[in-house]
Design goal:
Helices cover 32% and strands 27% of the residues. A hairpin with a 5-residue loop joins strand 2 and strand 3. The longest helix is centred in the C-terminal third of the chain and has 13 residues.
């Protein structure tokens, strides 16, 4: 078997709801908002579920990421 590495200090922030995949600019709005707020995006999972987008950020920035995404997507 191959070896694995464990990397600590990450958080997963999810955007969840019916119709997430139909919103064509949702991932662009999300990643742009995080970049503008200087929140590093470590990974994302888009397309594996019809109802969610998962964004990986540094754990220390998780609350800021949630606030940032809320403002960008819902206000």
């Amino acid at each position: 078997l191959d070896s694995i590495e464990v990397d600590h200090g990450h958080a997963v922030v999810g955007i969840v709801g019916a119709g997430v995949m139909q919103e064509t600019d949702l991932i662009a709005k999300s990643t742009t908002a995080l970049a503008d707020a200087k929140i590093k995006l470590n990974f994302y999972n888009y397309g594996s579920s019809d109802t969610s987008i998962l964004l990986g950020v540094n754990a220390a920035q998780a609350q800021d990421a949630v606030k940032c995404l809320y403002h960008a997507l819902f206000e």
